[in-house]
Amino acid sequence: MNTKEKPKYSVSRLNLYEHCPWAFKTVYLEGIPRAADEARATGQLLHAMVADYLERLIATGQPTDWVWARLATPSDGHPDVVEMWERFYNTFTLPPALVAPGVERQLAFDRKWEPVKFSSRRARFRMVLDFHFRQGSLAVLIDWKTNRTMNGVEKDLQLLAYGWGLKQALYPDVEEVLLRLHFLRYGREREVLLGPDDLKDVPGMLEEKIGRIEKDKHFDPAPGSFCGMCGVTAHCPVMSEALAPVEVLAPATREQAEKAASLLLTLQKMEKELSARLKEWVREYGAVQVGDLVYGPSQMVSYDLTPQNVCTTLLDAGLSREEIWGLLSINKTSLEKGLRKISRQDLFDLALKTGTVRFSERIDFYKTKS
Ligand code: SF4
């Protein structure tokens, strides 16, 4: 590692290194901020709103406060944020008689994994716990999730580190930690119980990961599916080098084809990031012209149509049902989404069987199995 002062660590920092050492170095050793990312911004905003709400409930001793929560709904918020927030406060009830609760609790540990103040110069590993409390000899830790995927609760390093941190710093006498993931997007929860055997090796596991980072001299870039999310694509050597070779534009050998695939992946990821940054610029300073094209805002018109209203109107206007069915389209994704919305996923296979199966080939990137 080529900095004089050793950096501080957290689970998300370790994860960034796992995804791409170059991205870790760029962000945490060189201090280059990551480009804005909608998913990260949504997560941060919702975490802050939920924390404010919980602090209010704990302070006032109420199980819910819908009036306050309704007023706290951001009037110009992204629909995703508003939907998750409304689902949360309409379904969440603060458990009664909480013992030693904490919201957005900041914890820090020194080199010997002993708790220290979050702001301490000795703090080497930091974490922020969303919501925790005690229930008898059990510690309960709730982690708010805004992910689209709702994977099963595996005892991964993040969960183990949070469970260990809670016991080590706040509830040293508890036997077990119940970790509950609350998926704000779906209003669903998943739980995992962490016992002494799960937690005892956590400092060693974290130490091993930190050791690998501190021994690293090269921080090689690791291009892959994370490229669109690293937030530092513009500072990545792989991205700029990939644009140079001309022979990849018309590959003739496997080696050139591999370079071409790497270039294509790069361009796909770069396009996303470039257009996000350019949109930001245009919003602030106005449209830009490239030859006879202008990149800037233009008015779009869209309609939210209700199938029932459209069908009734067309039937009333004299169209037959057969003519109307042809106008309505449904595909596997919309069918699955619609049934999930009304909690009738059990009908998915049945409905799918009414269609005919068509096979076609699509050439694109997909994840390797290993
Ligand atoms: S673009 Fe890919 S390879 Fe480059 S820094 Fe980001 S994650 Fe790493």
Give start-end ranges of low-pLDDT stretches: none
- Whole-number mean pLDDT: 88
- Please report the distance between the alpha carbons of the first and last residues: 30 Å
Oligomeric form: single chain
List all distinct small molecules, including ions and cofactors, that are bound in this structure.
Answer: iron/sulfur cluster
Widest sheet: strand ordering? 2-1-3-4-5-6
- Tell me the helix content: 40-55%
Q: Rounded to an integer, what's the Rg over CA atoms? A: 26 Å
Main beta sheet strand tally, sense and closure: 6 strands, mixed
The CATH architecture category of the largest domain equals Alpha-Beta Complex
| Structural domain count | 3
- Secondary-structure-based class equals alpha+beta
State the CATH class of the largest domain: Alpha Beta
Q: What is the overall number of helices?
A: 14
Number of strands: 8
Query: What portion of the residues fall into strands of 2 or more residues?
Result: 5-15%
- The CATH topology assignment of the largest domain is Lambda Exonuclease, Chain A
